[in-house]
Design goal:
- The chain is elongated and about 60 Å long.
- It folds into two domains: about 35 residues, Single Sheet (Ubiquitin Ligase Nedd4, Chain: W); about 130 residues, Alpha-Beta Complex (Nucleoside Triphosphate Pyrophosphohydrolase), CATH 3.90.79.
- With about 180 residues, it is an alpha+beta fold.
- The protein has three helices and 13 strands.
- The strands form four sheets. It has a four-stranded mixed sheet with strand order 1-4-3-2, with no helix packed on it. A four-stranded mixed sheet has the order 8-5-11-10.
- About 15% of the residues lie in helices and about 40% in strands.
């Protein structure tokens, strides 16, 4: 199986790709190699960390994609990593905070499209501040890390990175 996010030419033989209906969907296809070119999303994981006061932790992205936007701490899952482990690792890398994977609860998943056209499925976990160790500081690819109350986020001119965060804010602003 060959997986390529976006391609015009076959990654095996260089032939220009066409389309073919496979499993009820139009897919990229190499007629020379007789290969379907799968465009599967990359998996990512993140943590929604909330204080008792309702404030949530956000990081301001310091690297591409979505540089300068605010999001929950999240990133790609490594090939040998479970999603919950990736979520805890990303929290640590981006905020210097530590959480035990046993303290993370699955919230759900969301499909998002990055500016380069690639799709990412984000598996989101939640926890509260009582499960956290360490002192908050911006980590490897975060320009800034801080807690926000929901009203401040919603009235801010700052750009939010993901539909997941916007959806969370909408759901919680009704309470």
């Amino acid at each position: 199986m060959i997986t390529v996010p976006e391609a015009d030419y076959c990654p095996v033989c260089g032939t220009e790709l066409g389309d073919k209906e496979v499993e009820g969907r139009k897919r990229l296809f190499c007629s020379s190699c007789d290969q379907v070119i799968w465009r599967n999303p990359k998996p990512a994981a993140g943590v929604l960390l909330q204080k008792d006061s309702g404030e949530i932790l956000l990081v301001k992205r310091g690297n591409w994609p979505n540089i300068g936007t605010w999001s929950i701490p999240a990133g790609f899952i490594e090939q040998d990593e479970r999603p919950v482990k990736a979520a805890a690792r990303e929290l640590g890398e981006e905020t210097s905070l530590e959480v035990d994977t046993d303290d993370l609860e699955l919230v759900g998943d969301l499909m998002v499209q990055h500016p380069d056209g690639k799709y990412v499925i984000v598996i989101t976990f939640s926890t509260d501040i009582s499960s956290i160790k360490g002192e908050l500081s911006a980590g490897d690819d975060a320009q800034e890390a801080r807690f926000w109350n929901l009203e401040d986020i919603q009235s801010s001119e700052e750009e939010l990175e993901s539909e997941a965060l916007e959806s969370f804010l909408q759901e919680n602003s009704r309470d």
